[in-house]
Amino acid sequence: MVNNGKFTFGTFNGPFKTINMLDAKKPLPLSVPKLLKYMRLKEWEAFQIGNGDYFILGAIYNAKLMGVVQLVVIDIKKNKKYIFEKLLPPWKPIVGTSLLNQVSYSAGRKFSFHLHNHLEQDRIRVTIRTQGQKGQPDLNCWFEASHKKEDTTPIVICQPFGPNRALYSHKALMPLTGELEIGGEKIPFTKERGFMILDDHKGYYPFEMKYDWITTAGHDQDGRLTGFNLTDNQVQDHETYNENCLWIGNTTHLLPPIKFSRPDGAMGKWYIKDSYGRVDIEFTPEIEGKVDINALLFKTKYRAPYGRFSGFITDDDGNRVSFDQFYGMGEDKYIRS
Fold this sequence. Notes:
Elements: E1 2-3, E2 6-7, E3 10-12, H1 34-40, E4 42-50, E5 54-62, E6 67-75, E7 80-88, E8 100-106, E9 111-118, E10 123-130, E11 139-146, E12 155-162, E13 165-182, E14 185-189, E15 195-203, E16 208-219, E17 225-232, E18 245-248, E19 251-254, E20 258-261, E21 270-274, E22 279-287, E23 290-295, E24 298-303, E25 306-314, E26 320-322, E27 326-336
Antiparallel strand pairs: 1-2, 3-12, 4-5, 4-15, 5-6, 6-7, 8-9, 9-10, 10-11, 11-13, 12-13, 13-14, 13-15, 16-17, 16-27, 17-18, 18-19, 20-21, 21-22, 22-25, 23-24, 24-27, 25-26, 25-27
C-alpha cells in the first residue's frame, strides 16, 4: 500500500498483501516517530452477518486510547437486541496487519472473539464465545464466508484525507455458512440465506472523526446475494474517491457520491441520495444503538440504529435493484480523540 513512503491511492478489486501504513512519510501534519504514527492510526475489523431472521454486528476496534470488542445480535422477528461488549486497554485487542493468514482477536475467559483471516485460502472464519455477560444469554457461534472470485468481488480502497494521509478499507459481501447458539437455541446459517459483509479498516483520521454510513444485504427474488455500502466521510474529492458500491452476486458496481439527511434525528427516517438519480434509499430505524462519552480530549457521539430499508439503486447496466424490506444498519459517528 505504501511504496517509497507514499500511499498508492485508488479503488481496487483485490486485497493488499501488505497494509504497511506506518511506512508512510508525513501522514500527519508534523514529522513524528513511528510510535506516534501508530497511536494516531485508528484500526478495526468488523462484519455484518445475516440470514433473514437474524442480523449480527461484530467488531474489534483499537482507537489506541482504548479498545472495544463488541457483538450485537438482532432477532428480527422479535425485534429484540442482545449486546455483548467489553472495553479493553489498547494493547489487548489485536487487529491484524493483513487479511492473508492473520487473526484479529480478543481472548478472554468469558468473552473470546476471533476473526481468522485466510484470504490466501479465499475464506474468512469467525469464532465467538461469551458466557456470564450480565443480563445476556450465553452465546457460541462459528461462521465461514467464501471470498472466492466466483462468490465475491471486494471493494478495496486507499483514499486521501490529505496529501499523504490515507483511509484504507477492504469490504466484501460473501456467502456464508455457520451456526449461532444463543440461550441454548441453535440457529443454522446456510449458503442459500447466509451472508457476511466484511470491513477491514485503518485510517489516519483527523482529530475529529465523523462520517455517515449504511449497509444491508440479503437475497433478491431470483436468489442472488445483493447488498450495498454507502458512506459520506472525510475523504477528499468524493467524485474521484469514495467507497460507495452495489453488490450483485459476485459483481461490484461502483456508485457516485451520496448525501444523508435525517430531518427527524437518528431514530427518524434517513434519506440517502446521489446527484445522478442512481441512489434513492430510505432507512427506517427500529432498534436504537448509541454511545455518548465526554471525557476531556475524548468525546464520542455515536448513533447506530438497526432497521429496514426501502428504495432502489441503479446498477452499471441501468437496471433498478430494489431493497424494499431489506434489514441492516446505519451509523452517524462523531469521535474526537
